[in-house]
Structures are given as structure tokens and as C-alpha cells.
Design brief:
Elements: E1 27-30, E2 33-39, H1 49-62, H2 66-78, H3 83-92, E3 102-107, H4 117-128, E4 135-140, H5 147-150
Parallel strand pairs: 3-4
Antiparallel strand pairs: 1-2
Helix pairs in contact: 1-3, 2-3
């Protein structure tokens, strides 16, 4: 009897938002953490670019539009701006699919992430129901070669 091999799918999610002016009081939230030294993002939601990117990746696997679809409905109908809620909705669409590993690559001059990697990984692992070892994060300023790397 021939053994069926598992179907392995991969997806890449990306997201970015512009920072609000320095005088803004909207918090900067990334991977569920608040960074007090940086203004928040121009977004109707909290603008969490990590959770948005994960939603986009999951949409590629499920073919269900979360950002621009389900998330917009939650915002318009219930006023929900928490990207963690959007990510949990995206996970519901996976059904029997299993996430094996998540890799996050951040490009930003600000905020500084190095002291926050572990907590960011914990948040992502908690939401995705993974072990922390199944979540990797790196960050770079890209030596100022892009707007993101310049902090714009």
C-alpha cells in the first residue's frame, strides 16, 4: 500500500503602516507589545504589522480574505480594532491545517526590538498555539536603505 505524503504549504505575509506624528497618543503595538518610545501607526486598527502579516499569510493558505474582509467587517460592525482578534479569526479558517513554524522578519529603525524578541515570540506562540521554539524573529534597520529602515 502506497503511503500518502503530507501536503506542505508555505505562505509569506507582509504588512506596513506609516507612523503617526510624534505628538500622537496612539500606542505603537507590534506583535502584541506596546512600544512607548514610538508613535502608533496610521491604521483604523491598532496597526500591529506582525499580526497583520500573519493574517495575510494565513489568507494565502485558506483563500479567505481577513485583512480587507473579515477584519473590516469586525471593525465596521463591532468597532474591533485589536489585530489579535483578526489573527484569531484567521486561525479559525485553517480548519485541519497545522502551522509548523512561523518566521518573522522586521525592518525598522524604530522601535528597537532586541530586548523584546522573547516576549514577541511568546505572544505569537500563545495565539497560534505553538511552542516558542516554533516562532523565529529577526530585525534589521537595513542600514537606512528604505523608508522603513530610515524610520519614516
Amino acid at each position: 500500500m502506497k503511503q500518502e505524503l503530507p501536503i506542505i504549504k508555505t505562505a509569506i505575509g507582509q504588512s506596513k503602516h506609516r507612523f503617526l506624528p510624534l505628538e500622537s497618543n496612539k500606542p505603537c503595538i507590534i506583535a502584541g507589545l506596546t512600544f512607548d518610545d514610538t508613535p502608533g501607526f496610521q491604521s483604523t486598527s491598532d496597526g500591529d504589522v506582525v499580526f497583520y502579516a500573519l493574517c495575510h499569510a494565513l489568507s494565502q493558505l485558506t483563500h479567505i480574505q481577513i485583512i480587507g474582509g473579515i477584519a473590516d467587517d469586525l471593525y465596521n460592525r463591532e468597532g474591533i480594532t485589536d489585530s489579535e482578534v483578526y489573527l484569531k479569526e484567521a486561525l479559525k479558517e485553517l480548519h485541519k491545517q497545522t502551522i509548523m513554524h512561523v518566521s518573522i522578519s522586521l525592518e525598522a529603525k524604530k522601535p528597537l526590538f532586541k530586548d523584546s524578541f522573547y516576549k514577541m515570540r511568546e505572544n505569537i506562540a500563545r495565539i497560534l498555539k505553538l511552542s516558542i521554539d516554533q516562532v523565529g524573529i529577526t530585525a534589521s534597520s537595513a542600514d537606512g536603505l528604505t523608508d522603513c529602515g530610515c524610520g519614516a
